[in-house]
Amino acid sequence: MGIDVPAETNASQGGQRRIGLTGGIASGKSSVARLLAERHGVPVLDADGYAREALAPGSAAARAVAAHFGGGVLARGSDPDAALIDRAALGSVVFADPAARHWLEQLVHPLVRERFDAELARLAGAPVVVLMIPLLLEAGLEGLCSEIWLVDCDETQQLERLMARNGLAEAEARARIGAQWPLARKRTLATVVIDNRGTLFALEDQVARALA
Q1: Can you give the pLDDT at residue 1?
Q2: In the chain, what are the domain boundaries?
Q3: What is the DSSP string of 141-210?
Q4: Based on the number of CB atoms within 10 Å of its own CB, is 117 exposed (0-12), middle (13-18) or buried (19 or more)?
Q5: pLDDT greater than 80 at residue 143
Q6: Using 50, 70 and 90 to split pLDDT, how confident is the model at 24?
Q7: Is 113 left (phi over 0), alpha (psi -120 to 50) or beta?
Q8: Residue 32 scores a pLDDT above 50
Q9: Cβ within 8 Å of residue 79, ≥6 positions away
């Protein structure tokens, strides 16, 4: 399975090509983003990175999280007033509780969207910009993009990669995968499907051809 590019794509944003880069958790989005940035010099706006910034120690959002979830989501030994969030502990809470996850998303997503708007304004003159958003389709943010790239892999690969990367037990890894739309559903909505089942060389070739 290689790149699937339909004959027509969405309209570009004022002449700028905006690539919405998405996929399932641990499908390989970061690898594709790194290739785009390092090999092709394309600016990448990273939603996860902006979410981490939104929860920076002592920030208003971090204090709200600490107040809502309690000391169990704070880094061990940290000053509660500093609101240093233990992201692994917070992840364990929100991926086990849809209501908790929804609360966190309602807090963080508007902050991430503000950062995207600011960065897109700053990069208005760039011919191509990548918006790496794991929940692009789930959050209905397709309108930000002129095309959607889905990084795809087998469900077994996804599970194994997530367990190895995050040190998770299988049940916890499955819960995190289940919190997102399945890849099969996302494939039907993508402009470009990047197959990350094989080698890095194959991935590089697909990224170069899709960008061209």
Answers
A1: 42
A2: 1-43+126-212, 56-122
A3: -GGG-SEEEEEE--HHHHHHHHHHHHT--HHHHHHHHHTS--HHHHHTT-SEEEE-SS-HHHHHHHHHHH
A4: exposed
A5: yes
A6: very high
A7: alpha
A8: yes
A9: none
* Opening angle at CA 135, ends 131 and 140, nearest 5: 85
User: Can you give the pLDDT at residue 76?
Assistant: 83
- Count of Cβ atoms closer than 10 Å to residue 31 Cβ: 16
Tell me the whole-structure pTM to 2 decimals. 0.87
In terms of C-beta distances under 8 Å and separation of at least 24 residues, what long-range contacts does 200-207 make, across chains too? 200/31, 203/28, 203/31, 203/32, 203/35, 204/35, 204/39, 206/2, 206/3, 207/32, 207/35, 207/36, 207/39, 207/40
Those residues with Cβ within 8 angstroms of residue 106's Cβ, 6 or more apart along the chain or in another chain = none
Looking up tokens 């819960």 gives 175
Q: Which CATH number fits domain 1-43+126-212: 3.30.420.40, 3.40.50.300, 1.20.1090.10, 3.40.50.1820?
A: 3.40.50.300
Structure-block tokens of residue 105: 């998303």
d(CA 176, CA 20): 21
